[in-house]
Amino acid sequence: MSAHPPIGNARRSGVVLAVLTASQFLVSLNTSIVNVALPAIGADLHLSQTSLSWIVNAYLIAFGALLPVGGRLADLFGSRRTFAAGLALFAVGSVAASIPSGAALLVSGRAVQGAGAAVLSPAALALVLSLSPVGPVRNRALGVWGAVSAAGGAAGVLVSGLLTSLIGWWAIFAVSAVTAIPLLLLVPALVPAPAPAPGSRRQNGRLDLPGALTITAGLVLLVYGLGRTDWSKPPTLLLPAAGLVLLFLLAPIERRAGDPLVPPVLMRNRSLVAGNALMLLLGMVWIATFFFLPLYQQRVLGYSPLIAGVTQLPLAAALMTSSTVAGRVRGTLVPGLLLLAAGLAWLSRVPVGGHFATDLLGPSLLIGTGLGLAFVPLTALGVAGVSARYAGVAGGLINTTRQVGGALGLAILTAVAAQATHGGTPSPHTLAHGYREALLGAAGIALLSAGCAWIHTARSLAAEARPAVAD
């Protein structure tokens, strides 16, 4: 029996893609599913806004820091086996987070969820790549993957609003467990195991534990330190400084590793490096947008969790539509990032007494369209020219940069919002001022990423034209 589903069997391939993308949807959903529920969680557990951000960051840091490990596991032990193990771990974390016993178990459960996502997501992307031949079939599969990933992040706020209003905040984690378990049961029957790639090191490979520990500790210190509100005090600056030192030490550690997390051959791939650098910037904007927008709607505009979730539908629709378009049309990266920057700048000017139709709908559509148009080409850029041998680690790396970027962006912009209020009373006016500053900062990051993307595109086109000019 063939290890691959027959390429000509569209129905079988569609079923496999559905299972893989459903799991990725669940991963993306949990990057934002807590956002609308944060005010309810904060009131129930008596948490500050900075503490609330750690309910988001616990997931993002575990996800981002362990993604290279997840990608390596997929390459060493098989993508289907790794995918199933990650899905099981994700389900365990979801169950733990759904037990409303306190902040410690909630944050710990979120971290376990993130670890599970770090294992299953690159394995799922590796399966998509290995089961889709290069060309239109793979482009369509990546378009579906991008649309589902984007829609998951947007749908999280809607699901969060519905469940928080109707049942309680704990239900947003219970639904993840209820969804993950059936998907796990479908894996052995529906998802084929790809044949080992030529040159696979599965027999002799081993995990780079020193590298994994170094990157995890470095990111935790960096993100936690940047998330502190008073950057003027030296003790606050020591934490991110220590994190940066550990991340700088990662390079010599990886050079001495027999089986590094990121093989050096991948770092010589210019497309991969550019795609990951740009995805880091996009992640900083992406996660922060879905953090601050629901808070603004509930704490400043007075929306209920249900209304805050429902009003995300236009943004979600724009994300899904533009992601599908980006999977079929070339050249959407720079326009998408410019639309994203324009939407965030517009959103940063929403007044305290703003209305959805006149003040939120327009920027929401721009943001959703921009995210979708940018995400798909960046994902493709991050895996361009990568052989099947390294598909897992490449898939893990592109997801790592988005999640790490999200954690960094959320920590920085949360601190910006807190600094902007100057410790004032948390009234709608002071909160609005802080949120506006954070959204304006996100717009600046999006504009910077658009400029970097334009430079990379121009250089790539010039490099492609050089041989023709020489002839």
Task: Characterise this structure.
- It is a multi-pass membrane protein.
- Keywords: Antibiotic resistance, Cell membrane, Membrane, Transmembrane, Transmembrane helix, Transport.
- The chain crosses the membrane at residues 52-71, 83-105, 111-130, 142-163, 169-195, 207-225, 237-253, 273-296, 302-321, 333-352, 364-388, 400-418, 438-456.
- Its main location: membrane.
- This is MFS transporter.
- This protein is mostly helical.
- It has 2 domains: 10-186 and 261-470, Growth Hormone, Chain: A; 212-257.
- Helix content is 79%, strand content 0%.
- The protein has 17 helices and no strands.
- The protein has helices spanning 10-32, 38-45, 49-77, 79-97, 103-130, 136-166, 171-190, 209-226, 234-256, 264-267, 270-300, 305-310, 313-326, 333-347, 356-382, 391-421, 428-470.
- Helix 1 (10-32) runs antiparallel to helix 7 (171-190), helix 11 (270-300) runs antiparallel to helix 15 (356-382) and helix 13 runs parallel beside helix 15 (356-382).
- The longest helix has 43 residues, at 428-470.
- It is globular.
